Predict the 3D structure of the following.
Amino acid sequence: MFANKFPPLTAYLLCLCSLGIFSAKANAAWVEDTQNIMGTRISISFWHDSAAIAQRALADGMAEMRRIDQTLSPYIETSDLALLNKNAAAAPQAISDELLFLVDKSLYYSRLSDGAFDITFASLGWFYDYRNKLQPSVKQRDKLLPAINYKWLQLNPKQKTLRFLHPNVRIDLGGIAKGYAVDRVIDILKGYGVEHATVSAGGDSRVLGDKGGRPWMVGIKNPRDGGDESAAPVIRLPLENVAISTSGDYERYFIDDQGHRVHHIINPKTGESASGLVSVTILGPQGADTDPLSTTVFVLGVEKGLALINQLRGFDAILIDSKGTVFYSDGLLAPDAAPATSGAAS
Ligand code: AMP
Ligand code: MG
C-alpha cells in the first residue's frame, strides 16, 4: 500500500524519518488506568514523552480523585461535607476555597434554573437508598421537603463561611463533584506537560487535545441497555478539548411496588425523581459546569432545558426522552435540518 502511493525513494525517506521520530521518543508511554473511587469508575489515559513521568502523573491524578472523595463524600463521617451537614445549622462554618468555589457555583446554577439544581435536595434525598430499594416515608417527606431550598444557604465569600438557615438542611455535591474532579485531574496532567488525554469519572469526562491525530470518540450510552458495559452507544461524538457530562435515570435506581422508576436525580420542588427525560448530555469547556448543567437540564425537561442551554454561550446538549426521541441544542443542529424538526430527531 505504502509503495503504491509513493515512489520507492520517497517511501524510503519517509521510513527513515519515522524511525528517527520513534527513536527520539523511545521512552514515550501511552498510560491508562481505571479504579473505583467516588462510588464510580475513574479512568485516566494519556500520552507522555517519558514513561517515568507518565507514571508519576497517573499516580497524582488518581490521588487527587481520592482526596476529593475524602473531602466531599457525604458518607465519610470526617469529610468536610459531612462536618458541614453536622454543624452548619447551628453556626457559620469556615470552609475551604474549594468548597467555596463548589457551593458558589452550585448557587449560580440554582439561581439560573429557578431551583432545578439545588444541593439542598439532600435534606430529603439523603433518605433514598437505591441499593436497598428504600425511599422516604410520607412523614419524612412532609417534614423535610421545606428544607429543600438553596435560599437556606448563607454563603459568605469574604469570611469564607457557610451557614444553613433551616435546621433540617443537608447538602450533597454529587451533581457537581465528579465534573470538578475531572477538571482537577486534567490540570494536574497539564502540569506534567500532557497535551493528549482523556479523564472520566462515571458520566463525566473531559478530553484534552486529540488521540493520535484524530478526535477522541466519546459515546452516549443507550439509557435502556440494562447496564451492559459492552452494549453499543446510541450516539458517538468525535471530540477534542471539551468536557462532556451525561446524567441518566439508569445510573442509580430501583423500580418500586407501583412499577415507578425511583432514581437519583431529584426534582427539588417535589422531592421525587425527575421524570420526562432519561438521558441528558452537556458539552462545554469544563466539567465543573457541564456536570451541574446535565443534572439541571434533566430536572427542567426538554423545553426549559433546551431553552437554558441555547441561551448559554459555549454549551450544547443532547437529550433523550422516555419515548427515545433525541433532541439537540441549536449549536448541534444539522445545517440542513428542516425547521419543523427544530431541536428534535428520532
Ligand atoms: P449527575 O449524575 O451529574 O446527574 O448527578 C446526580 C447526582 O446529583 C445525584 O446522585 C445526587 O447526588 C445529585 N442530585 C440529584 N438531584 C439533584 C438536584 N436537583 N440538584 C443538585 N444535585 C442533585
Ligand atoms: Mg451532572
User: Anything to note?
Assistant: The chain has ten helices and 18 strands. The pocket of adenosine monophosphate (ligand 1) is lined by residues 117-119, 121, 172, 174-175, 203, 247, 251, 264-266, 268, 291, 294-295, 299 (CB under 6 Å). The first helix runs from residue 2 to 5. The longest strand covers residues 29-37.
